Amino acid sequence: LIQKVEMSSRMRWVSIIYTLGIVIMFSAIWVNMLLPLMQTGEKPDTFYAIFIIDLAFIMPAFAILAVMSVRKQGLSLILLPAMYVLGITLLVPVGLGEFLKPHYGHAIDWAGAQLYLGVSASFLVMVVLHLRSLRVGGSSSIRA
């Protein structure tokens, strides 16, 4: 069944470019945050685990699925929406958490909140578009 999963070429390329954009964007953000800490020998206070998980597992998984999509491998077409949902579940709490900071004596990072919630919204759009365009063996779209 996985070998029969297909989607339009246009949507597949939108998904590939979007996924690689996510990899580039978050890898650049995390590396730019880590470089000054590496130069001073400091350990990040709060996001240490996120750096490790994202740079060692999440971003490589996105990149691998993008490459698999370039190769038109059906498994990637099924797993990419799952990765987008994972992105939503990881980023929405971080974005909403910004609004709790005043309760703990910290200022809201509006740019961070917008980034995390904006990317979460884009993940949601991609999930819907991606799932609507999936087809099995030339049949109509997969719909629940």
Mean pLDDT: 88
What kind of sheet is the major sheet? 2 strands, antiparallel
Shape: elongated
What letter string, H or E per element, gives the SSE order?
Answer: EHHHHE
The secondary structure category is mainly alpha
Spatial strand sequence of the major β-sheet: 1-2
In total, how many beta strands?
2
Low-confidence blocks of residues? none
Work out the radius of gyration: 18 Å
Measured between the Cα atoms of the first and last residue, the distance is 17 Å
Question: What can you see in these coordinates?
Answer:
This protein is mostly helical and 144 residues long. It contains four helices and two strands. The two termini are 17 Å apart.
